[in-house]
């Protein structure tokens, strides 16, 4: 949880990836060992009520929240179906409740029963969802509304353009300079507010994560001349660089980094230039001080 709040979160996730499957197996084995199957016979109505809360209560809340934020019905249904199961934190809370004598043993058994049944039913829900959407949606509606909107914003004939990933403090300054220089620009940004503002100004912008290949296709990576990454996460930038280099070997890639190891990592992934902000600040300060070269310092 501490690493998740740092800039090394993605790198930590990558380094610990081999342990994921082992812990996943351990997790499900532990849940199975704690489960008392007699609860299904002794309290079937309570089990069904618990399962209904998980499947319908969580799903309905998620569906309406996603719709409230303006996303499509397909997106809302997909998220609702994905949340129709219990997460691992439910077991932590159940264990804590028992330790504090706030939850009886029967309550923990109900949580375990609801978790196992909801996990088993989740693939079935997704299969039913796909069948429902296939019957009720037209071919055009089967594509996410957000993706359709993004694709319409990018002319099919755009080429030899600058592809700017991230429009925060650094990206916005760079983007304004590129626009002032009449350089064709496409911005990839995860903030809907920023994307809407750019589109209102007539700037081509794609809403999404540049690590997604479909997003890069919408931004016409294959014929872009420059790829400029201003996102602060070095590991994520390195993954984007590697993917972009594979899709467009001739593209000029410039990325941003905060640490020496990030510079080395992004360079190894295929970036032409990596700018480290701290170095540039130090270099500018030295230039402002007009520090003479070593060996020419006059003392005494």
Automatic annotation (TrEMBL):
<protein>
    <submittedName>
        <fullName>Putative transport protein</fullName>
    </submittedName>
</protein>
<feature type="transmembrane region" description="Helical">
    <location>
        <begin position="21"/>
        <end position="41"/>
    </location>
</feature>
<keyword id="KW-0406">Ion transport</keyword>
<feature type="transmembrane region" description="Helical">
    <location>
        <begin position="76"/>
        <end position="98"/>
    </location>
</feature>
<keyword id="KW-0050">Antiport</keyword>
<dbReference type="InterPro" id="IPR038770">
    <property type="entry name" value="Na+/solute_symporter_sf"/>
</dbReference>
<keyword id="KW-0813">Transport</keyword>
<dbReference type="GO" id="GO:1902600">
    <property type="term" value="P:proton transmembrane transport"/>
</dbReference>
<dbReference type="InterPro" id="IPR003148">
    <property type="entry name" value="RCK_N"/>
</dbReference>
<comment type="similarity">
    <text>Belongs to the monovalent cation:proton antiporter 2 (CPA2) transporter (TC 2.A.37) family.</text>
</comment>
<dbReference type="InterPro" id="IPR036291">
    <property type="entry name" value="NAD(P)-bd_dom_sf"/>
</dbReference>
<dbReference type="Pfam" id="PF00999">
    <property type="entry name" value="Na_H_Exchanger"/>
</dbReference>
<keyword id="KW-0812">Transmembrane</keyword>
<dbReference type="GO" id="GO:0006813">
    <property type="term" value="P:potassium ion transport"/>
</dbReference>
<dbReference type="GO" id="GO:0015297">
    <property type="term" value="F:antiporter activity"/>
</dbReference>
<keyword id="KW-0472">Membrane</keyword>
<keyword id="KW-1003">Cell membrane</keyword>
<dbReference type="InterPro" id="IPR006153">
    <property type="entry name" value="Cation/H_exchanger_TM"/>
</dbReference>
<keyword id="KW-1133">Transmembrane helix</keyword>
<feature type="transmembrane region" description="Helical">
    <location>
        <begin position="47"/>
        <end position="69"/>
    </location>
</feature>
<feature type="transmembrane region" description="Helical">
    <location>
        <begin position="110"/>
        <end position="129"/>
    </location>
</feature>
<keyword id="KW-0997">Cell inner membrane</keyword>
<dbReference type="GO" id="GO:0016020">
    <property type="term" value="C:membrane"/>
</dbReference>
<feature type="domain" description="RCK N-terminal">
    <location>
        <begin position="159"/>
        <end position="276"/>
    </location>
</feature>
<dbReference type="Pfam" id="PF02254">
    <property type="entry name" value="TrkA_N"/>
</dbReference>
